Amino acid sequence: MRYIVTGGAGFLGSNLCYKLIANGHEVVCIDNLYTGSKKNIYKLLDSNSFKFHNIDVTEKFSFDCDGIFHLACPASPPKYTLSSDSKL
Asked: Which residues, at least 6 apart from 43, have a Cβ–Cβ distance to it below 8 Å?
């Protein structure tokens, strides 16, 4: 099966990507690297079953898949607290 993992370069997302690949699935990893890191998915980048896209989930994207794991969310209060001049 082919899965999309948003927030796939974060702690939880990257571990899910590794598990899905280990179980024989294909993974499309989407992350804007705001709180995630390419270091978390470094070992997957050469895999034919893994594709990384550095895009934000608020932007339009389209990929064929069998399922989506939506884990894109800053997990730290300083990262997800909007200032008064931030755009939604």
From this structure: 18
Tell me the C-alpha distance between 53 and 18, whole Å. 16
Reading the block at residue 7, the tokens are 């927030």
In a domain, 85, yes or no: no
- How many CA atoms lie within 13 Å of 52's alpha carbon, on the beta-carbon side? 24
Which pLDDT does position 85 carry in this prediction? 53
Question: pLDDT tens digit string along 21-68?
Answer: 999 999 999 999 988 999 999 999 999 999 999 999 888 989 999 999
User: Is the pTM of the predicted complex or chain greater than 0.85?
Assistant: no
Longest Cα–Cα distance in the chain: 45
| Residue 88, in any domain of the structure | no
Residue from 61, 69, 3, 72 nearest 35 by CA: 72
Per-residue DSSP letter, 8: T
Count how many domains the chain has.
1
